[in-house]
Structure formats: C-alpha cells, structure tokens
C-alpha cells in the first residue's frame, strides 16, 4: 500500500494562499503534498480551480456520500468547489474514487497493472491512494482512491481530506 505523509497544515496554508495543491508520488511509493510542480504530479488545485472528482453511480451510496464530503472539504480549503462527476467526460486531470469489485474503472486499472492493489485486494477496510498516468482515454493523470470494500474506500477519502488540512 502507498505510504502517506500527512502535511495537513502546510497544504491548507498553500491552498488558502491561492497556491497550487499538488500530490506527487515520491521515491519508495510515498505520496506527498508538493510545493512546486514536477512532470508526474497530480494537480488537485491549480490556484483557481479544483480537479473534478469522479465516482461511478453504481458504487455504494456511502462512498458517494463521502465523495460529496470531499467536495465540500476541498472547497473549504481552496475556495474552489470541484465537480462531482459520474463520467470522466473531457477532463484531463481527475480524482478517481471507487471500490474494488464495484467500480468498473478501478477494476480495469487494477487488471491493466496501472493501479497497485497488493495488500488491498481481498483485505478488509483497506485502501490505496495512488497517482496514475493515463487512467482513462483523454485523462492525462489521476489521483486514485481505491478501497477493498466500501469502508476502505471511505477511509481513503477521509485520509485525503486530512492530508489537505481538514481535521476529522
């Protein structure tokens, strides 16, 4: 599973100042909040708008509700409300949320080897939070939250909220 380094207060201060809020997959699989953009960073907030959040409508209703909470948390921190989308549409930078076995998108990313699910698949209440290049046609980069079950997915969503500066 991807290790997380929580830099909550720093992330909230950056976003509040209108700075970019980036996530970068660093060495040893560590996902970190970055200050200056690198080629492989996922840009969650570019100083003006927030990346849309994609969750399939067939995922558990509790996951969809938690994704709605994330929309509100991102807006609280950045001032920009991300779109909660049920299709990827024409977005090039996207946050993808889903549960293994429930989300066709998550299952396809895992089957293609783009999403690392070792330690999550078959486990209880586990999740992976990972950046993925070209996860869907037309989408250049995504930050993916994939849970082993609905609780795992929800835990991953709230972990991201904590990373951006929202206290549980």
Structural description of this entry:
It is a single chain. This protein has about 170 residues and is an alpha/beta fold. The protein has a domain at about 50-160: 2-Layer Sandwich (Chitobiase, domain 2). Helices cover about 30% and strands about 30% of the residues. The chain has four helices and nine strands; from the N terminus they run E-H-E-E-E-E-H-E-E-H-E-E-H. The chain has helices at about 10-15, 60-80, 105-110, 150-165; strands spanning about 5, 20-25, 30-35, 40-45, 55, 85, 95-100, 125-135, 140-145. A five-stranded mixed beta sheet has the order 6-5-7-9-8. A hairpin with a 2-residue loop joins strand 8 and strand 9.
What is the CATH C-level name of the domain at 48-162? Answer: Alpha Beta
Give the strand tally.
Answer: 9
Question: How do the SSEs run, as a string of H and E?
Answer: EHEEEEHEEHEEH
Helical region count? 4
| Residue windows where pLDDT falls under 50 for at least 5 positions | 1-10, 25-29
Percentage beta strand:
25-35%
| The CATH topology of the domain at 48-162 | Chitobiase, domain 2
Secondary-structure-based class equals alpha/beta
Helix content estimate:
25-40%
**Biggest sheet, open or closed, and with what strands and sense?**
5 strands, mixed
What characteristic shape results from the CA principal axes?
globular
**Average of pLDDT:** 80
Query: Would you identify the CATH architecture of the domain at 48-162?
Result: 2-Layer Sandwich
CATH superfamily of the domain at 48-162: Chitobiase/beta-hexosaminidase domain 2-like
Keywords:
168 residues, alpha/beta, Chitobiase, domain 2, 4-stranded mixed beta sheet, 9 strands, 29% helix, disordered N terminus
